[in-house]
Specification:
The complex is a heterodimer of chains A (352) and B (450). Chain A is mainly α and 352 residues long. Chain A has 17 helices and two strands. Chain A has helices spanning 2-10, 40-62, 64-88, 98-108, 116-131, 144-155, 157-160, 177-180, 185-190, 201-206, 218-230, 237-257, 265-270, 274-281, 292-312, 319-336, 347-351; strands at 163-164, 181-182. Chain B is an alpha/beta fold. The chains are: A mainly alpha (352), B alpha/beta (450). Chains A and B meet through α1 and α2 of A and β4, β8, β9, α8 and β16 of B.
Chain lengths: 352, 450
């Protein structure tokens, strides 16, 4: 045996003893060598597509005012994104579409009458403070558009709560605006003017009510939400659990407290920013939990807080605050809700 | 359709199997020269037992196993050993290899006929029903059979459960979940009888009375053929699995077929009373135990966009890839990336001048587009990698620890449990390195342990 071993060692070491059949340069890399066709920019593209029905309805009802506000918001967000990428060297790219999404979402969260400087400040807060100072795409803790909305709401409450009544068929001259401003359905509710609420469920559904640009038509937003679900951009658990929780909690108040004091759960689901928030803001991947059960808890928290703020809080609308509070809880949720890994048993099960 | 079983998680890449799934296995004639690495299996490399200049017969041992987890290597052509030296292994490294070149006649002064009779192991018999388990195991060990699904773990070791471990079920893996590969599919259609015998032999070796054959439902013809072939065999059922990657992973197949979860490493299927063998392995087992044939040829799939004629070919181990290509009609255009195995877990070759080894399930030839490096973006925390991880790990978070240089953090996040199926990297919309980082981290952790 030992002799044979010596023979092996004495043999010359040859590399590539024969010439390759075709001397080609080959790429090497660690597997997998296949990749799914989806990408960040495709995800953002579908979010934009899904937002379009809601944007279209608001343009229909609010006319050029809404177009103006939306344009300013989008252009300002893209501008601040470009500047931040350049100056702060944070990861991301204009091409990934995330700034466009934030721009549209911020636009949808504004009253159509918002002054241009306020929209620009909002864009600055969204892109620079809420997104890039936190490290850019993927590392922001709070949804940028929502931070901006809440910032504007507490800074200039009058501007942010001066709602325009939907003008019929588009163009509304600026001097007419004062005449047609009115409260949102939720605002009326908070002021105890339940009886004045003219909005029927069908008005809420189709968007013929006062409100910010993007929150008025439940059906247009639902259509967008379905697009997101079908294209697998979002998963069902956040919108479904969010809306269902709000429905149940406001429903309890309605049935226990009585309809003279509280609005119906259907009204709560269809009014304000709930559907916009549940499908487009709470589902923001960056600021929601990473596991299925984490997302369920997150959405439950969003729904509960929304209902509590609307029912008992000082503000008429609670969706933004609820989502931001749950954004802040996301790291905690991810830390606490851990699935057991494959093949392991929970400690409790081992003991029993 | 019957119940379709599966596991939670996993991905659905296009299977690209129609290039070759309907093509019968072609037999490639023995080449003039083979390079047989002594390391074609997991475990200790074999040790050469022939000398340069020695004549060998087909099937004769040229390298013997050097431990319990090891496997012998056999001559795949008759001829003369012309070198024992280091050659490029498809795995990328240089491996001690035995080179055999065909000869026209016996050496001068030797009157024995040429070529010599192929070597057959003594003790093999069609009457395996009367063999004891140890005899079957020794035939399988001496035949050099290893798992043919790609990992190339010595089969006899899997059939030797340590004392105290009770095996109650044999699972035969016909899932073939890797895209492009069809060698197991063809094997089920064309070597059905061998598989039936092989399964019976494996059941006898393990002392189990039941076996399940798991096949994905993109191979309805194989399901039909196998169901019919096993109709009269007591204790064996053929189960249909939903197409999903990585269903052919042992742990996933066991979960899909039985609901049991194999504990994390060093846990083995044995810990839940199960042994898994590939369909191709079962066919080789039948050849070895019934006819004494050692493991020196296998079926491989040649596919991908750059090959002129995709094919399923039965080749001698040690055949150089160039010779296989020549036999099959060559390449349409220069490939930019060549993969041995499937595109999800296979290795990319740096050099086409490599031999077919025991773990080669195929070679795939891709163009520049498929080989293009995708630019990685920032993690969006979308959670898709978490949703699809078949082992319920959190790839995105583990990657963050590794990128921050925190190996302990990665270990606490169970990076060691990763089986490197690559589903996370496949699904990531930001094209991030995930499984690739885990491989690095696992290697570093192992190094640190030493």
């Amino acid at each position: 045996m030992s002799e044979k071993n010596d023979d092996i060692q004495a043999a010359p070491v040859k590399e590539a003893a024969t010439t390759p059949p075709a001397p080609v340069k080959l790429k090497v890399g660690s597997s997998p060598h296949l990749h799914d066709k989806d990408s960040i920019s495709k995800i953002m593209f579908w979010v934009v597509i899904a937002l379009l029905p809601g944007v279209a309805v608001s343009f229909w009802y609010f006319g050029l005012e809404a177009v103006r506000a939306m344009l300013i918001s989008v252009v300002a967000c893209l501008g601040f994104e470009a500047a931040s990428l350049r100056l702060l060297k944070t990861p991301g790219s204009l091409k990934d579409g995330s700034a466009l999404v934030t721009g549209i979402l911020l636009g949808m969260n504004l009253p159509p009458t918002a002054p241009w400087w306020m929209i620009v400040v909002g864009s600055l807060v969204a892109m620079v403070i809420a997104k890039h100072l936190f490290g850019g795409l993927g590392t922001n803790i709070f949804n940028p558009a929502l931070v901006a909305r809440v910032f504007l709401l507490v800074s200039w409450p009058t501007h942010m709560t001066t709602w325009m009544k939907p003008g019929q068929m588009g163009i509304v001259a600026a001097d007419e605006l004062a005449a047609v401003t009115g409260a949102t359905p939720l605002g009326l509710l908070k002021e105890g003017r339940l009886a004045e609420m003219a909005a029927s469920s069908s008005d809420l559904f189709f968007g013929n009510v006062g409100g910010s640009i993007g929150e008025i038509s439940a059906i247009a937003l639902l259509l967008g939400g379905i697009i997101l679900l079908v294209k697998r951009v979002i998963t069902w658990e956040i919108p479904v659990v969010f809306i269902a929780t709000t429905f149940v909690v406001t429903g309890l108040a309605y049935w226990i407290g009585g309809p003279e004091k509280y609005a119906s759960p259907v009204f709560h689901v269809l009014s304000g920013g709930l559907i916009l928030g549940a499908f487009f803001m709470a589902t923001d991947m960056v600021t929601s939990p990473i596991t299925f059960w984490g997302r369920v808890v997150f959405a439950f928290g969003c729904g509960l807080l929304t209902a509590l703020i609307r029912l008992f809080g000082g503000y008429p609308e609670g969706v933004s605050f609820a989502i931001l509070l749950m954004n802040a809880s996301t790291p905690l949720i991810d830390h606490l809700i851990k699935e057991r890994t494959f093949g392991t048993v929970r400690k409790a099960e081992v003991a029993s | 359709m019957a119940i379709r079983r599966t596991f939670r998680g996993g991905i659905h890449p296009d299977d690209h199997k129609d290039f070759t799934s309907s093509l019968s296995i072609q037999d490639m004639p023995a080449p003039d020269r083979v390079v047989l690495p002594l390391r074609q299996h997991l475990g200790a490399p074999a040790k050469a037992v022939v000398q340069v200049g020695q004549r060998v017969a087909v099937g004769q041992v040229v390298g013997e196993a050097t431990g319990f987890v090891s496997a012998p290597v056999h001559a795949s052509i008759a001829g003369e050993v012309t070198a024992i030296a280091k050659y490029r292994h498809p795995g990328g490294f240089l491996a001690e290899s035995v080179v055999i070149e065909a000869r026209d006649a016996a050496p001068e002064g030797d009157e024995s006929p040429w070529p010599p009779e192929p070597f057959r192991m003594p003790g093999a018999s069609h009457d395996y029903g009367s063999m004891d388990a140890e005899h079957i195991r020794s035939l399988i060990r001496n035949a050099g059979i290893v798992g043919m699904g790609g990992a190339a773990f010595p089969t006899a070791v899997k059939l030797s459960p340590p004392k105290g471990k009770k095996v109650e079920l044999l699972i035969i893996n016909g899932a073939e979940c890797e895209p492009f590969l069809t060698c197991d599919h063809r094997c089920m259609l064309e070597e059905t009888d061998k598989i039936v015998h092989g399964v019976k032999i494996l059941m006898r070796a393990l002392g189990v009375s039941s076996a399940i054959i798991g096949i994905e439902d993109n191979k309805p013809d194989a399901i039909a053929v196998m169901t019919k072939a096993f109709a009269g065999v007591l204790g064996v059922t053929v189960a249909t699995c939903k197409v999903k990657y990585p269903q052919g992973g042992e742990k996933q197949l066991i979960k899909a077929l039985t609901g049991r979860e194999v504990p994390p490493p060093p846990g083995l299927p044995l810990d839940v009373g199960i042994v898994v063998q590939n369909v191709g392995t079962a066919a080789r087992v039948a050849e070895a135990v019934m006819d004494g044939i050692t493991f020196y040829e296998r079926t491989i799939t040649l596919s991908g966009s750059q090959i002129a004629k995709p094919a399923n070919v039965r080749v001698r181990l040690g055949t150089m890839l160039g010779d296989v290509l020549e036999f099959c009609g060559g390449l349409k255009a220069d490939p930019a990336k060549v993969i041995m195995g499937g595109p999800m877990m296979g290795v990319s070759l740096s050099d086409l001048d490599v031999p077919v080894v025991k773990g080669t399930s195929g070679f795939l030839f891709f163009d520049g587009l498929a080989a293009a490096e995708l630019e990685a973006g920032p993690c969006l925390r979308c959670g898709r990698c978490v949703d699809i991880c078949p082992l319920r790990l959190r790839p995105a978070e583990i990657a963050q620890f590794i990128e921050a240089g925190d190996l302990d953090g990665a270990e606490a996040m169970h990076v060691r449990e990763c089986m490197e199926c690559g589903s996370c990297s496949y699904i990531c919309p930001a094209n991030r390195w995930l499984v690739q980082l885990f491989r690095i981290a696992k290697a570093k952790l192992n190094e640190r342990k030493k």
